[in-house]
């Protein structure tokens, strides 16, 4: 049973400019790596102590990739440093899984290539990065591609807005899936595209792609659209790793686990993932540690 937490090496996902009225801290991209090593180490150690066995690592521009060093922020890890950290995490009994979010809502980490979406150059860069990261992680079981929140509403405060729709969205997803599978790895995505396009999603999303629907509230049931997606994905035979968070309430993870264990068949419920949605900075230590404790308690009795 997967007991995962999402960790952030890079946190350059949201706005590519400072948005004074956003009301959300840390959302803007920064030219320097936002990571405090002591907190990173303490998170890994506490995960191991709690029996959490997978770290999904959002790499973004936090690595100076050999194929595209131009996208790295100042202080980015070298490939050698990343390999050392992966070995240390594995030694704690934690399986590291790579994540690069290719949603146009969260791809500021791509630097100039985030403004080349759906061009031959873009496809080449995406393929290069996926291939290199899969090699750095020694052909991991999964590769998380993100692909969430690519809507006008989610980019309403951005200065530069890109939204793929219809055939183009599916085409680009197919390019990414093909690149991951060519590396011998299983693709993994956020599932929220299903919220607005349920029939299209069920007809076109390959069953081979691992799904992580996410919902951070406390109410579950057929009248809660976001939570009902867990049930709908199960009805259509998708493997799932449901995702909770202490973003809104500490109660979410335990309720997510209870609801999904009731509604998803064991053979398709591969595990759960906890998210805190904060950068790995000391100022956010309390949120990170709370997320770990909540996940550890909610998942303690899962084999």
What does this structure look like?
The protein has one domain (2-299): Glycosidases (TIM Barrel, Alpha-Beta Barrel), CATH 3.20.20. The model has no long low-confidence stretch (mean pLDDT 96). The protein has helices at residues 37-50, 79-91, 120-136, 166-182, 193-196, 198-204, 225-235, 252-263, 285-299, and strands spanning 2-8, 54-58, 95-99, 142-144, 186-190, 210-212, 243-245, 271-275. With 303 residues, the protein is α/β, with parallel strands linked by helices. Strand 7, helix 8 (252-263) and strand 8 (271-275) form a beta-alpha-beta unit. The chain contains 9 helices and 8 strands. Helix 1 (37-50) packs parallel to helix 9 (285-299), helix 3 packs parallel to helix 4 (166-182) and helix 8 (252-263) packs parallel to helix 9 (285-299).
The Rg value, from CA coordinates, equals: 18 Å
Please mark out the parts with pLDDT under 50 across 5 or more consecutive residues, or reply none.
Answer: none
Q: What share of residues are in beta strands? A: 5-15%
Distance between the termini: 6 Å
Q: Given the helix and strand composition, which structural class is it?
A: alpha/beta
Instruction: Work out the helix count.
Output: 9
**Based on DSSP secondary structure assignment, what is the total number of beta strands?**
8
Largest sheet: 5 strands, parallel
Level of helix content? 25-40%
Broad CATH class? Alpha Beta
Overall spatial form: globular
The CATH topology name reads TIM Barrel
* Count of all domains: 1
List SSEs in N-to-C order: EHEHEHEHEHHEHEHEH
Assigned CATH superfamily? Glycosidases
Oligomer: single chain
For the residues shown, what is the average pLDDT? 96
